[in-house]
Each structure stands twice: as C-alpha cells, then as structure tokens.
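Reading group handout, session on sequence-to-structure problems. Before we discuss, look at one worked example. The prompt was deliberately terse, the way you'd type it at a terminal:

> structure histidine kinase

The input record follows.
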Amino acid sequence: MMGGSDRRRLFLLLAAVGLVMAIALTYALAARKARSDIDRQAEQQLQIIALDLQSMLEKFETLPFALSVHPDLAAALRAPDQPALAGNVNRTLKTVQQQARVAAIYLMDRQGLTIAASNWDEPQNYIGRNFGFRPYFRDALNGSAGRFYGIGSTTAEPGYFIAQPVFAPGQREGGTPLGVLAVKISLNEFERTWSTSDEPIVLVDQHGVVFLGNRPAWQYRSLAPVDSATRARMAATLQYVGKIVEPIASLPTAARRGYDQPVARAVGRLGWQILLFPAQARIARIALLWSGAVALVLLSGMLLVWARHQRRRRLEERQAARTALQQAADDLDRQITLRTGELTQANQDLGDKYARLEHAEQLLRSTQNELVQAGKLAMLGQMAAGVTHELNQPLAAIRAFAENAVTYLARGQADQASANLLHISDASARMGIIIGQLKGFARKSQGKVAVVDLTRSIHASALLLQADFDRHGVSLQIDLDAALQITGDAVRTEQVLINLLRNALDAVEDTPQRQIWLRLERDGDQALVRIRDSGPGIAGEVAAQLFEPFFTTKPSGKGLGLGLAISSSIVQAMRGQLSASNHADGGAEFQLRLPLAKESNER
Ligand code: ADP
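And the output record:
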C-alpha cells in the first residue's frame, strides 16, 4: 500500500523528470531549428555576398580583353626602344584605370617586364618590374585568360589579377602574343562591408587559405594544414608574399569539433569558397529562450493543476467536516430526544410521587387535626373538674344572693335587694366569660392563619385554668414585657399555652412552693413565651422523649402523653419552636417562640 505522501512524492518526482525531459527536448529541437534557421540565413547572406563578388569580378572580366586590342599596346610592345609609344600607353591605361576604378592596369612584354602601367607616375609604379613568375602572366602568354589572387609584390596590396594576351593586329588567331595586359582589382572595399557582421565571414582560396575576411587574425592562414608542394608553389608565385601560411589556431572550437560547420558557397573562377561561421551562442540563446518559455508554460500548467487539486482537496475536507458536524448535530439531537424522554418520564414520576406525597400530607394533616381535637377534648376532660368548680361557685353565690334578695324584698329593703341583684349580675357575667372561653377552646380550628394578639391568648388561657390553680393553691405570675402580635391560629396558640400551663400545674402540685411564672418578651423577630415552674424539673432520661407522642410519666387516667407532641406539631406548623430546659434555680422552663406579625415586627 502506498501512503498519500508517498504518492504525492512520486507524482512530484515524475513531474520533475517530465519537466526536465520536456525542457531538454525543447532545447534540442529549438537548437536544431535555430541552427537550420541560422544556416538558411547564412546561406542567403552568402548568396548575396557571392553574387556581389561574382558580379564585381565579372564586371572586370572583359576589361583586359577590350584593352588588349588597342593598337597602341601592340605598337609599344613592338618598339620598346621608342619611349613615346610607351608613354601613350601609360596615359591611356591611367585614364581607363581611373574610369573603371580598378587598382592598376599594366602591360608586360613576353618576358614579363612591365613596359607601361597606369601608375607610371606614382612613386611605387610597376614600370621595369618583371611579373613573369606570376601564374596569370604565364596563362595569358599561353593564349588564354589568366586569373590570380595575391599580394602585390610592389605595393604589398592584395588584389585580383585578370590578364589577357596582346596580339599584333590581325594576328589573334594562331599567332603568338606580343605581351600580356593585366588588370588588378582591389577587394578591400568589398571586404569592408563584412566588418559589421558579428559572425566570421571569410573568403578562402582553393587550398583553404583565408585571404579576405572580417577576422584580421585569420588573414593568410589556412583552415587545414597545407601540404608542402602547395606551399612551394605559393612561394614561387609570391602569392602571399612574406606570409607563412599556418593553420588557424583560433577557429571556433565548435567548428573544430565538426558540429558547428561553417556554411560555405563556391564563388569565382579560382575555386574560392566563401565561408560563414554561425555564432553558436545565438543558437544556444534561442534554444534557451524556447526551453525557458516551455518551462514557464509547463510550470504554470503544473501550478494550475496543483492549485486546482489543492482546491478540490480543501472542498472535500470542508465537505467531510460539514458531514461530521451534521452527524454530531444529529447525534446530539438523538441524545437530547432520549434524555428529554427520560426527563419527561422522571418528571412524570416525580409528579406522581408529589401527588402521592400531597395525598399523604393531606391525610397527615387531617389526622393531625383529629389528633389535636382529641388532645383538646382530653384536656377539656381534665379541666372539667376545675371548670365545674369555677361555675359552681358563682352559681352558689347567685342562689344565695337571690334568696337573700327575696328576703330583702319581703322586708321592704329595696336597696339591699338591688345590691344583691347587682352581685348576681356580676356572677353570671363571670360565668358567661368562662363558658365563652370553654366554647372557644372546644371549637374546631379553621386552620386559618391570622394576626393573633398573644397577650389576649395568654389571659384567656390563664382564665380557663384559674379554678384549677386556685384549687391547688398554685400562684401564677404573669409578666408581660410587651404587647406582641404573632401570625398564627388563635385557638391553637391557646391550646399550646393551656397545655404548657397545665403541665406546670401538674409539676408543682405536690411540691411545697407552688409557683408558676409566665413571661412574654420580644426576641428578634419572634415572640418568646417562657413558662417556668417550681417543680422538680425534667429528669435526664425523660428529656430525650419529652416530645414523643404517648410518652408520659403520669399515672394512667391522668396523662395520655400527647400534650407536648401535639403542642410541638402545632408550633412547627406556625413556623415557631418549642423547647424545654431546666432552670438554674430549679424547676422546668418551656420556651415557646412564634414569629411576630408584620405590623408588630415593624413596630
Ligand atoms: P402528659 O401530660 O399527658 O403526661 P405531656 O406530653 O404533656 O403528656 O407530657 C409528657 C411528660 O413530660 C409528662 O408526663 C412529664 O413527665 C413531663 N413534663 C411535662 N411538663 C413538665 C414540667 N413542667 N415539669 C416536669 N415534667 C414535665
């Protein structure tokens, strides 16, 4: 298996190899094309040069022939002892030379001695000079046109020589020449036009010797070594006077390697060749340009492909991320639905539980109500004796007052009688109060929360127990620190107070000092009722069970053990606290705390 990065590396390698190959191929093709283009250009250039040269040489081809038939020439050759004739020829030749713009025109006798020349009046003239050694002379003397290129032995100026035999008038056919007429043409002008070309352009003779060109260092040197026979002939004809023909050392290296061959073209009648060496650098430059362009295009293409590939990958990645996100969101949705279901179920369960709890609480409350009522009735039973005594006393008094009043009336003592009646009224009022209190206590509470005047509740409770206290010789000392109002249930508050006072009464009943203290005070935002007695106090083992239902230390028939349990639950329902402790001076003290009513609280 191939990893992603391995594949990418392979792809990069292949791309690099492909790029290099493409560049190399482009280079080779471009070089070949450039080479052929340059060769063709060179060919064209050479064609122009060759035509130019050819036409120039041809232009003068007929000049020596035309001049050779001039009668003055034969005359001068025939009479070498008459200088006047030669002088005529001199002038004629000079005129023609100047008109035709050739380097020189001169006439030689059969030995090659110059007898007349266009430059006769110049310091370096040909008069008296012998050119018998020159091949053109010999060719012309043999009856045909002579042609030669060489350096002038007199002037040291190179030139092209054309020679024609001079015959006596009418003797041309089959006769022997009287002499030879030669024209020298300078090619310097021609050579100068090549100097602007960067590439080597040279004219070589049939032996490969450079005699004209735009590379001065190559002048009179050969392209290839020249054999000794040719060398000897060159020396004999003074063709390149004083020049040692050596091979060119600095031919372009590429040319020597044989791969940068010069472009060649034959020109003239002497086996010459004109050569042009195309600049290798130009080929390289063109090839480089092409391969650079191709490399640029390919690289841009590759970059484009790469960029598109990257873009596609990024898109794919983004798509994948989006899919993953969607999936995660779906998962979350599913989870939420699941959890919501569970939660709904749990909520419903909780609701059910709450309903059951509510039902249980209702049951409890009704049970508690019944219990409270039962406790109350039990207490009424306990109080019955006291209450009966309390009612009997005024009743007995009323009867006595009434009987006395009858007696007073019979005696006519109306004032006494009315005083008695007033006493009766008082006593019945007292009875009414006691009965009213009893009625109120026995009443079933509505369970309504209201503002309760605690002072009044304390007085009502004390009044209900007054008879019992009196009967047992117990003194109740009430100490109201403040008039306080609480929020709660008046009937139940009295029930608690009566229960506590009743317990205190029970506790002090058999003790020598029968004293009970009730004190009302304010404690923060609560009303605090302390009920203290001079009894034996609460025994240690009793304290823990004090508020438990049906816990009692009293003999059966006297206590049910429900009083404190009910009182405690009443107080808790009113958001208060009920606690018990032993006082430092002996006896028990019960503390009842109830929340103050808003008004009372603000006072
Ligand atoms: P009961 O009065 O019917 O016994 P309670 O619940 O009112 O029921 O009281 C429970 C017990 O608490 C009593 O039996 C008694 O032992 C104890 N007790 C209550 N008040 C006092 C008090 N002031 N002094 C000593 N013991 C008390």
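Points for discussion. First: The first helix runs from residue 4 to 61. Second: DSSP finds 15 helices and 16 strands in the chain.
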